[in-house]
């Protein structure tokens, strides 16, 4: 469905982009921006307080009441899977499961299995997991800042954390995972004034790591975590020892031009076998962007309208999230009546994640990351244009929502050490394939360490492609 | 996945097919290929020139080509039961039952007692959507001041009916004018859009059905609910786009005994009315629209190029409403999120809006205020106290709520904008006499010359210096005055 709508949207975005060409950034990042109430600014609490997730009985009772009394949805049209969105035929089953089978108390215990804390950064209480296993004497403990996105949470990492932090005698390092919750999400405070976009969040996390005593660290990110991680690597290159991402994207104008050029002439720009993952003009990618990005469009423009709506209906929240998780995992799930949701995840996993939004009532504020980041102010910071020399390693799953070839990635990540393409996997890679994910990150860290040991100078020369 | 075939005389892909490209040699390969390509092109100037002329010709033909009217099946069945051919016109009443009221009040309480309702940022007005403070006011009125029993009486002040067209029960309000022997009664089909309903016409209906001096005619009004909206049944299979709705509405009029009638439409009502006037021109005596747009490719291109080259010329009197292009683009980008979502995932957002009256209220309120006047975005109250009293707005929302029709109403977006027939009729002109009413803050506006490419007998237009998208709802008097004026012109046009 290119059509009129697609053409208008494309024209709008192009004109917007062209109109925002400034050589001087109109705005600058304030490293000391205060995001909490003004009155707390001068009582700066730097303590790191232990934190426990609690599912209060009152919250559970209210939730179950709403689930059990939800209004009957309209049935889907004949012959339709998920093409019109979440197929309401499966809604009752999901809501019944959530109300009657999801074991709230057990899940609460599970969610607290990793030590968690809260500390106040720039006025915001930031929630985070900090965890490592007992290492051998010869091993260096390396901190890994791992960043989730939307509609994710730290829950996405629960299955991969044991593998990430696993201690292997043959390695000279062991990982300490620091997994924070993005501001406005889960149990992290939300900003009380506008302006907290992805680059500002990068500052918050850099300060978080400083608070925890780390001068240098590795960063891993997917979804918003990828953009925030990229921003940290750009704004604080001396702090980041290496950046690993499962959503490698360069947002530079060079990359955009190369993408358009590559749509016409793929082979100089991208490996022909992967060309259809980047081809904007054939209709496949363009159509996918149009059909799948409605949520992004409305959250970037009317987060509070949608927030009021979503806060009042847990069933609605579930449908909204699971539709995204479905198509984000495999594009062919669009044609399945059950959305393929049960194929790669357990229901407990997905409901745990939804609870991280429902229980702390952070849905509305989580939407705002789109409004705060997809705007002219963020564009005008120009941070996405600036390349970073931080060594970078990427992994590309077959059904990830976007793909860029190494040529494009290097317009941003000048020391792209290598990329790995796998013929499986989706957007929520850590949750879907925790062991593969962990191994790729650990291999990346080993590679980063080698790179630094050899003097850490890159000339952009790409190591042979890893195709796994 | 199909690749578009390119009409280029040189295919770079074929050139380097024999060379295996390795990603490590990307940049040098790139330079070689580009260089060869550039060289060949520079030698082929003549071929290039001819090729360009040919492309321009193709574009011209594509933009001005008048396709044949597609074959129309006026008997397509949409219901579950394909055998019943019930032609009765059955009286209907809007009901706000006690059960419905208890349920909605319980849901109100759930929301009201919710801990930690998120507050919108201070001093941002409605730039993040509905502001929580404004919504609280609106919601409070809904709980404490909206009198269900009185409002349902009001909604039943006109006669409601259901009749089965092509398998779907279509709901409509029908109001006969006050009798006057000297005045001819003419039928007027009023077509609403989204997120509107027949409620939009309630204040205009008395004005349309009362004879007035200087006019020798008066209207009998037929205001249906679109299929899938309010009390009109929804289809059970995909495909019911505005084109099909036009057929249903035309068949509705025939069911009511009208072989010729006037049509008034805004929003989707404009599209449907326009289709009826195009497919059944001998049946439509005149078409009045308060959403005057031409959706053809030529119009879009003219609008874009006109904005870049010479706005005041191409704007032809309404350039302040069409340009500057950059502002308009920003506006559309910022305000079409809902349309993007509904055109792609109507059932998902439908689940949310069906489950919570607060959700439905917030979502619809947002569109009403911004479409009435987009500068409301910068008002703390969003203008909620300026244009409509809360009861009016809530009547409309309640019609969606009690009928449980929000999900099926959203599907019109997917069927239309994601369907394959969006612009099939855009380049087919109609000679049905047409009149355009432009209120100042209407979202899309095209000048007369552009409208005439489609509506060849555009008899005139009215530009008002106030008012927004919901013309009948916001300005019933101006609306009715203009409909009378237009139909007088239609009747004089022979």
From TrEMBL, chain A:
One of its GO terms (molecular function) is cis-stilbene-oxide hydrolase activity. Residues 1-19 form the signal peptide. The keyword S-adenosyl-L-methionine does not apply. It is found in: Endoplasmic reticulum membrane; Microsome membrane. Residues 48-157 form the Epoxide hydrolase N-terminal domain. SUPFAM superfamilies: alpha/beta-Hydrolases. The active site is at 223 (nucleophile), 370 (proton donor), 427 (proton acceptor). The keyword Nucleus does not apply. Keywords: Aromatic hydrocarbons catabolism, Endoplasmic reticulum, Hydrolase, Membrane, Signal. GO terms for biological process: epoxide metabolic process. It comes from the Eukaryota. Pfam families: EHN. InterPro entries: AB_hydrolase_fold, Epox_hydrolase-like, Epoxide_hydro_N, Epoxide_hydrolase. One of its GO terms (cellular component) is endoplasmic reticulum membrane. It is a single-pass membrane protein. It is an enzyme of class 3 (hydrolase). It catalyses: cis-stilbene oxide + H2O = (1R,2R)-hydrobenzoin; 1-(4-methoxyphenyl)-N-methyl-N-[(3-methyloxetan-3-yl)methyl]methanamine + H2O = 2-{[(4-methoxybenzyl)(methyl)amino]methyl}-2-methylpropane-1,3-diol. Its EC number is 3.3.2.9. Belongs to the peptidase S33 family. Catalyzes juvenile hormone hydrolysis. This is Epoxide hydrolase. It comes from Bombyx mori. The gene is 100307009.
TrEMBL record, chain B:
Its EC number is 3.3.2.9. Residues 1-22 are annotated as: Disordered. One of its GO terms (biological process) is epoxide metabolic process. One of its GO terms (molecular function) is cis-stilbene-oxide hydrolase activity. Residues 89-201 form the Epoxide hydrolase N-terminal domain. It catalyses: 1-(4-methoxyphenyl)-N-methyl-N-[(3-methyloxetan-3-yl)methyl]methanamine + H2O = 2-{[(4-methoxybenzyl)(methyl)amino]methyl}-2-methylpropane-1,3-diol. It is found in: Microsome membrane. The chain crosses the membrane at residues 32-60. The keyword Membrane applies. The active site is at 267 (nucleophile), 413 (proton donor), 469 (proton acceptor). PANTHER family: EPOXIDE HYDROLASE (PTHR21661:SF35), EPOXIDE HYDROLASE 1-RELATED (PTHR21661). This is microsomal epoxide hydrolase. The gene is jheh-lp4.
């Amino acid at each position: 469905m290119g059509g009129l709508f697609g053409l208008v949207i494309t024209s709008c975005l192009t004109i917007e982009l062209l109109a925002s060409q400034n050589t001087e950034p109109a705005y600058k990042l304030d490293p000391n921006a205060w995001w909490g109430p003004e009155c707390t600014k001068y009582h700066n609490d730097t303590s790191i307080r232990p934190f426990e997730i609690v599912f209060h009985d009152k919250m559970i009772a209210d939730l179950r009441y709403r689930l059990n009394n939800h209004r009957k949805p309209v049935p889907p049209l004949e012959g339709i899977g998920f093409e019109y969105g979440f197929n309401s035929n499966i809604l009752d089953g999901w809501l019944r499961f959530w109300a009657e089978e999801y074991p709230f108390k057990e899940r609460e215990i599970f969610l607290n299995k990793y030590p968690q804390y809260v500390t106040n950064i720039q006025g915001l209480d930031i929630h985070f997991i900090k965890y490592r296993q007992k290492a051998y004497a010869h091993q260096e403990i390396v901190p890994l800042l791992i960043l989730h996105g939307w509609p994710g949470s730290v829950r996405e990492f629960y299955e991969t954390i044991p593998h990430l932090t696993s201690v292997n005698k043959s390695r000279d390092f062991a990982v300490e995972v620091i997994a924070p919750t993005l501001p406005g999400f889960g149990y992290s405070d939300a900003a009380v004034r506008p302006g907290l976009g992805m680059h500002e969040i990068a500052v918050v996390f850099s300060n978080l790591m400083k608070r925890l005593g780390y001068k240098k660290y590795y960063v891993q990110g997917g979804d918003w975590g990828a953009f925030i991680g990229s921003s940290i690597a750009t704004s604080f290159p001396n702090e980041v020892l290496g950046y690993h991402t499962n959503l490698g994207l360069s947002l530079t104008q060079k990359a955009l031009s190369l993408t358009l050029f590559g749509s016409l002439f793929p082979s100089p720009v991208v490996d022909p076998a992967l060309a259809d993952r980047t081809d904007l003009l054939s209709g496949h990618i363009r159509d996918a962007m149009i059909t799948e990005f409605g949520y992004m469009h409305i959250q970037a423009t009317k987060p509070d309208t949608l927030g009021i709506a979503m806060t009042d209906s847990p069933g609605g929240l579930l449908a909204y999230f699971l539709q995204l998780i479905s198509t984000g995992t495999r594009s062919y799930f669009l044609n399945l009546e059950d959305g393929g949701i049960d194929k790669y995840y357990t229901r407990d996993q997905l409901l745990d994640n939804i609870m991280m939004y429902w229980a702390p009532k952070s849905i509305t504020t989580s939407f705002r990351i789109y409004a705060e980041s997809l705007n002219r102010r963020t564009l005008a910071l120009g941070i996405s244009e600036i390349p970073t020399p931080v060594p970078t390693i990427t992994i590309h799953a077959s059904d990830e929502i976007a793909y860029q070839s190494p040529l494009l990635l290097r317009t941003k990540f000048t020391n792209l050490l290598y990329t790995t393409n796998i013929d499986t996997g989706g957007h929520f890679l850590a949750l879907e394939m925790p062991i593969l994910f962990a191994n790729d990150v650990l291999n990346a860290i080993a590679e980063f360490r080698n790179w630094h040991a050899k003097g850490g100078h890159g000339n952009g020369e790409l190591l042979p492609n890893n195709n796994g | 996945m199909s690749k578009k075939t390119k009409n280029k005389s040189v295919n770079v892909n074929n050139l380097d097919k024999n060379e295996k490209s390795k990603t490590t040699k990307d940049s040098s390969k790139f330079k070689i290929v580009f260089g060869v390509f550039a060289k060949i092109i520079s030698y082929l100037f003549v071929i290039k020139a001819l090729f360009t002329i040919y492309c321009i010709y193709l574009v011209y033909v594509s933009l001005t080509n008048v396709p044949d009217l597609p074959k129309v099946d006026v008997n397509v069945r949409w219901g579950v039961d394909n055998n019943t051919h019930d032609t009765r016109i059955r009286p209907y009443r809007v009901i706000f039952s006690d059960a419905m009221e208890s349920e909605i009040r319980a849901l109100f309480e759930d929301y009201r007692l919710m801990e930690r309702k998120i507050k919108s940022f201070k001093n941002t007005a409605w730039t993040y959507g509905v502001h929580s403070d404004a919504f609280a006011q609106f919601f409070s009125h809904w709980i404490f001041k909206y009198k269900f029993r009185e409002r349902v009486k009001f909604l039943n002040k006109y006669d409601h009916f259901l009749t089965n067209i092509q398998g779907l029960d279509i709901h409509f309000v029908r109001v006969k004018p006050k009798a006057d022997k000297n005045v001819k009664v003419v039928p007027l089909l009023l077509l609403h859009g989204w997120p509107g309903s027949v409620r939009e016409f309630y204040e205009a209906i008395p004005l349309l059905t009362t004879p007035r001096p200087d006019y020798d005619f008066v209207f009998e009004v037929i205001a249906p609910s679109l299929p899938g909206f309010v009390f009109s049944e929804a289809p059970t299979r995909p495909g019911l786009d505005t084109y099909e709705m036009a057929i249903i509405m035309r068949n509705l009029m025939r069911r009511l005994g009208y072989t010729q009638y006037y049509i008034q439409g805004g929003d989707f009502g404009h599209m449907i009315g326009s289709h009826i006037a195009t497919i059944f021109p001998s049946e439509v005596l005149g078409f009045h629209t308060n959403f005057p747009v031409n959706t053809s490719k030529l119009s879009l291109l003219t609008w874009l190029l006109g904005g870049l080259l010479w706005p005041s010329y191409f704007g032809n009197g309404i350039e302040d409403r069409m340009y500057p292009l950059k502002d308009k683009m920003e506006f559309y980008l910022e305000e079409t999120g809902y349309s993007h979502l509904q055109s792609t995932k109507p059932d998902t957002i439908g689940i949310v809006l069906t489950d919570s009256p607060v959700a439905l209220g917030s979502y619809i309120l947002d569109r009403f205020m911004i479409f009435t006047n987009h500068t409301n975005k910068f008002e703390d109250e969003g203008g909620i106290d300026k244009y409509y009293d809360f009861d009016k707005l809530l009547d409309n929302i309640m019609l969606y709520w009690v009928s449980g029709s929000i999900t099926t109403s959203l599907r019109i977006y997917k069927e239309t904008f994601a369907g394959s027939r969006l612009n099939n009729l855009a380049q087919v002109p109609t000679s049905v006499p047409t009149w355009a009413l432009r209120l100042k803050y209407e979202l899309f506006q095209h000048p007369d010359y552009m409208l005439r490419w489609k509506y060849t007998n555009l008899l005139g237009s009215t530009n008002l210096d106030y008012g927004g998208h919901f013309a009948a709802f916001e300005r019933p008097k101006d609306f009715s005055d203009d409909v009378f004026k237009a139909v007088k012109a239609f009747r004089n046009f022979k």
